[in-house]
């Protein structure tokens, strides 16, 4: 696996990228500034992005001239399409253990970028035994996909979930 630095102008985003990532660009740029490039952009043999669209946008925002790239030239067209989707989807499948997350965040200085804010985690004083919504199986997690065109309804559902120890992703 060979990573090479190439001109940002030689890389093209995939025009049919189904991932809407505008809200993640600023945080990704902060991460690149804080930690440098730790993960290259993956492109196909024509320098079209397979994975790393947000990193590419962040690099442009940072006015970088070159970025680290891995050319995945051994993948078939079908594999490229599938990898492009799988790379993003597999991250959506993970959930956070909020107690461990809070422990990790407590050990990091405030001026180091993590991408998390106070509102990203529920209060560490939340006592799971006090919640009428949790049963005996503390290892169970529930995931809810919710769509509405009503901002008022969304805000009410969000408040209810957060008030009861849940989190919105």
Automatic annotation (TrEMBL):
List, alphabetically, the Gene3D superfamilies matched: Conserved hypothetical protein from pyrococcus furiosus pfu- 392566-001, ParB domain (3.90.1530.10)
- TM region positions: none
BP-aspect Gene Ontology terms: chromosome segregation; positive regulation of sporulation resulting in formation of a cellular spore
Give the GO cellular component terms, alphabetically: chromosome
Residue ranges of every copy of the ParB-like N-terminal domain listed in the record: 4-89
Q: Species name for this entry?
A: Companilactobacillus mishanensis
Name of the molecule in the record: Chromosome partitioning protein ParB
Q: Which InterPro entries match?
A: Chromosome_partition/occlusion (IPR050336), ParB/Sulfiredoxin_sf (IPR036086), ParB_N (IPR003115)
One Pfam short name: ParB_N
What domain of life is recorded for the organism? Answer: Bacteria
């Amino acid at each position: 696996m060979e990573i090479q630095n190439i001109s940002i102008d030689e890389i093209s985003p995939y025009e049919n990228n189904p991932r809407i990532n505008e809200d993640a660009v600023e945080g990704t740029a902060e991460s690149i500034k804080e930690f440098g490039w730790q993960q290259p952009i993956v492109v196909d043999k024509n320098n079209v992005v397979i994975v790393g669209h947000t990193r590419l946008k962040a690099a442009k925002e940072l006015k970088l001239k070159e970025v680290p790239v891995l050319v995945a030239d051994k993948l078939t067209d079908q594999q490229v399409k599938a990898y492009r989707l799988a790379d993003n989807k597999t991250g959506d499948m993970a959930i956070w253990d909020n107690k461990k997350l809070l422990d990790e965040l407590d050990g990091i200085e405030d001026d180091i970028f993590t991408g998390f804010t106070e509102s990203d985690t529920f209060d560490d004083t939340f006592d799971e035994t006090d919640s009428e919504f949790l049963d005996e199986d503390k290892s169970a997690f529930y995931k809810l996909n919710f769509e509405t065109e009503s901002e008022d309804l969304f805000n009410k559902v969000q408040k209810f979930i957060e008030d009861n120890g849940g989190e919105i992703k």
